[in-house]
Amino acid sequence: MGSGLQRAQSFLTVATLLYRASHLTVGVLAVAQRRSDLPLQYAGLAAALGLSALTYGAALRRGWFDRRHIWADVLVTGCVLPLALCTWGDASEPAAIGWAMLLGGSASGAAGVALDRLHAVAAVALLMATHFVGYQLVGASQAVVLGHLNSLVSSAVMTWVFRWYLLRQGRLLDAANARALAAEAHKARYAERLEHHRALHDTVLATLTTLATGGVDANAPEVRERCAREAAYLRRLIQRTADEVQHREIGTALEEAVRSVESLQLRVTAQYHELPQVPPEAAAALGDAVREALNNVRRHAGTGHAFLTATADPDGRGGVVVTVVDRGPGFDPGQCTPGLGLRRSVHGRLAEVGGRAVVDTAPGEGVRVELRWPG
């Protein structure tokens, strides 16, 4: 469709073309009714048709008018043609040149659209002078002359106003689109940074926090293997482009989350039952949310043991339900503010793919995190 400015220019081109077409139609009908012994009438009409085809055909191809064509149309169609009919076309009354004078109105309109203000005023003044002389030669009444001159001016003024308004709106639309694109780009960059922050929080930061607290033996083979795996993950994260998508099955994503926390000495009892096919982005979100939920068990539950179950949604909608349960001390939801991991890595991830997360806990009752997709 092009920019707003291009669409405004296309509309103005078509509108002035239709204006000229209506005048040419009148010319064809008028000449067809004249006597065949007036070849200048036919020659003049042919010249007007040819110049109109050149002017508007080029404008449609290029997207806007060529000013040289506009000036040629004003001089030939608007000025020379009426005077030629008055001088050599045996025109002795206003009706004989009326169709040629009418073409001056569409020439004036095109000048108001395509020329700058000074040149448009000059073109309209030239048309008015020529048409005044032409009507004087055929003895037109003062009312006819003044009405026609008013029509010339009005055509130019109206098309100039239309041009000013539509081009202004086109520029405003383009500016608004540019701002919207910039805002979307900023939003996309922020979302990418947020995803990187969540990924680092759930993997590398979780590992470093565990090592810093002395909860595991840093030299244990499984811990060293996890560190190597997350170092490779960091390299991939730095090199990854925005259009890369993680294509993982739901079972694979959940198993990766389980292995990730088991390397930090959290025992996980996992059960899967009739897992459905879900979109890759949903599988990735569920896997990452499960990993963070298991990281919370390891950090806060104090039991060293978690239970994971995943099954098809019993509602039969093709979804999946995943639960992470621990038998730790639990907490009072009304007295605790959800941390970054729970807000972004669990609730946030599920919400982004159309799912939802529910945390059910109470003091002394452990914690149950239920993840549903779709929500």
UniProtKB/TrEMBL annotation:
Gene3D superfamilies: Histidine kinase-like ATPase, C-terminal domain (3.30.565.10). InterPro entries: HATPase_C_sf (IPR036890), HATPase_dom (IPR003594), Sensor_HK_TwoCompSys (IPR050482). Pfam families: HATPase_c (PF02518). The chain crosses the membrane at residues 40-58, 70-90, 96-115, 120-138, 144-166. The keyword Transit peptide does not apply. The keyword Transmembrane applies. Residues 285-374 form the Histidine kinase/HSP90-like ATPase domain. It comes from the Bacteria. Keywords: Kinase, Membrane, Transferase, Transmembrane, Transmembrane helix, Two-component regulatory system. PANTHER family: NITRATE/NITRITE SENSOR PROTEIN NARX-RELATED, OXYGEN SENSOR HISTIDINE KINASE NREB. This is Histidine kinase/HSP90-like ATPase domain-containing protein. It comes from Streptomyces bambusae.
